[in-house]
Amino acid sequence: MYGKVFLPLKLSFDRLERDETKLCFLFCCLFQEDADIDVQLLTRYGMGEGMFRNVETLEEASDRMHILIDELKSCCLLLHSDKEGCVKMHDVTRDVGKWISSDHDNQYEFLIRAGEEVREWPTVEEMKVCKRLSLMENLITTLPDQPECPNIMTLLLQRNYRMRIIPNNFFVPELTIFIEIITYPLSKWVKLLLKRSERIDLVEGCQEGVTDILHLLDVEGGGFDSLKFLLLYNFSKMEHFIHFVEKPHRVPPNAFGRLQVMYFSGMDKLEKIFQGQLPHGFLGNLREIIIRECRKLKNILPYHHLLGLQSLEELSVEECEEVEEVFHYEEGIIEEGHAATTSPLSELYFRNLPKLTSIWKGDIPPPGTLYNLRKLTLNYCRSLRCLFSPALAQNLQQLEYLEVRWCDEIEEILSVEEDNKYAMLPRLLPRLQYIHLSCLPKLRSLCYRHNRGGESHVLFDFPCLQTIIVSYCSNLKRLPVGPQSAPKLEEIRGENIWFEELEWEDESVMSRLRPLFHPIQGHEFF
Fold first, then answer.
1. Is the pLDDT confidence value at 522 over 80?
2. Are residues 213 and 72 in the same domain?
3. Fewer CB atoms < 10 Å away: N or C end of the chain?
4. Is the pLDDT of residue 452 over 90?
5. pTM for the structure as a whole
6. How many whole angstroms separate alpha carbon 20 and alpha carbon 13?
7. Whether the predicted pLDDT of 345 surpasses 90
């Protein structure tokens, strides 16, 4: 058995080129035998332990994890699962993985006892060297007081349904992730433990009737001093993350003082992230908000909440079928103590928002509100007709990357009514370097000026523009580039027939741009 089966599988493992792939394989062994291994859950484990190099967002981590999974499947170390979003591992392959992971001669040091009807905590000797411990699906009833585990990084205890007590001194300072410990109502010891965790993943079933985070976690009893990542899944009753109007004094300003990432998924009744005024300094280190499949959400952040989140750099919203607007502004409504008028927000990503009609709704945003925005991506926003008003575009002085794809109704990127106020239109978007437009069947122009006598095209200076990509935009007949604009332009990508049918007000522009044109191949930018 050892020579015929274990050694060939060990050789396949050793031939994996990247440490990330090897660690991904061993993390799959943490699950019980014959389990359907949730790839999304694997991603969260890997993200929590810092498995992925040069990855900062959950979206990037998910993409990387799928690459690793494909590599493992290609060498038969993982198998296809009939359950969507999952993979499986042959029991013999898992045994080999357990053997590799527990070898003291390598750096992995796993201890895997998932689904083995374990009743007791591992021995002192075992825990002295252990870095990753899986005791999920067992019969453990209690945990030790002040365990000796100086190297522990990952501990999995979910579905130990007989567990009733965790000693106050159990928590291990070196522990970096403590994931999904429960799927039943939160007891006091669980709340205490969560307060000491860097990462919390909470899923449906933790507690019924949860309308905001205060119903779920004991925020009043003190802050989450270590918490950096908070992920909430499938809470069918949660209407707000926190309702400050109902409980204005129950949330200490530093309750989530170190929180960096908030993730919401499958929250069917979530109406708003926050209701009421944010306390000054609340979520002072929050850098990223990710929202997916929240069906009742209609708008994301009002202006005063956006300014209140003074470290927020990235906002991602996907698969939210009722979202109509991202930001909205009402003059005079600013949080008490929030003197800032500029958000640090640098990246916006929107995908499959079928009712989205505006990025910014309401009064004109104050100058500089979105000054730091550098990257904007919109995919499958099928009700959007125009991307920017001139007032909003004036805020985008740092925008470098613009991608718009599969937005069926969009007719123009920037819409301008006749108004002398915007005589400086050509100087908008001065830092833009990259434009990617794809599958926009109604797009006619990047910018029209709508006059009483008709429409006229606007040409931009684009002093930093380097790349223009246009695919499957058959009605786009003009580029907003004049004889003196876009001096740094390096390439134009698109279909041959589209470029040949472009209309030019000045033939010298066509002569200058033709050498920069490169035809796309097939569905290269589909």
1. no
2. no
3. N
4. no
5. 0.75
6. 12
7. yes
